[in-house]
Amino acid sequence: MNSKATCKGGTFHAGDLKLKGFKVQEITGPSYPVLAYGRRDCYKIVLGTGDMHFCYGDQTIDINGTFLFFANPHIPYSCEHRSPEQKGYACLFTQGFIGNRERKDSLLNASIFRFEGTPVIPVNRKQAAFIGGIYQRMLSVYSGDYARKDEMIRSCIDLIIHEALSIQPQPEQQQKNAATRITYLFMELLEKQFPIVAAAEPLSVRTAQDFAARLAVHENYLNRAVKEVTGKPVSVHIAERITAEAKALLQHTSWSVADIAYGLGFEYPSYFNNYFKRVTGSTPNSFRKDKRKV
What we know:
This protein is α+β, with helices and mostly antiparallel strands. The chain has 12 helices and 9 strands. The two termini are 23 Å apart.
């Protein structure tokens, strides 16, 4: 959804978000052109209706109907309205608005906000009515003078996230223990390195040994814990994330293959070419050409 979409109460400006860390709006009127692929400055949750095409990380998602869309500022995305009109609601908020550490962890842990998650969730009429009511409540509170409006709005955001997770059930969370905690810290450290913004600022933590050193644990313990919790060793998670970032850069940027290689921490472009072909079955240039034909 375009951040300058016309909404009740006027046009949204970035300054509103920077001032309060939060903005909610009702979206109406003609659809806007394609929102260019890239990162944003805030989280976004949209309840929308229409024919939409999303690029999110290395995923492409098409949906025609009513949906929830969850955007993470660390993950680049674009969206294209293929309907002449747009309608729905959107709220935007910074990580700082979420508040204390417990809330931040809860938000960042939600699968709908993670790179490997599904950010677009179809909703039926009953679910849309319920979530729309939450947005209406946020609009009312946001424009009112209730002294603890920030706290109430955070509760509304939490409620939308929980509703989304209940619509799209996630695997039951394992009991928190040392293995679960270290796995979360590993996944968080891995994800914080992305997206790559410049070849001159390459990945600095790329191996299981690197991650173990940063987390102050033995490499064998880290591997054992991560595999116990996720079913996959550390090396596989790293490889999958690097490959996903490589695909996104090849598909959505004009960077040279060499710059992508250096940005991902490969010493030589030839190492990256061999790695990418081994993992995907295609060379970087072939992958880029194939995706641009679509």
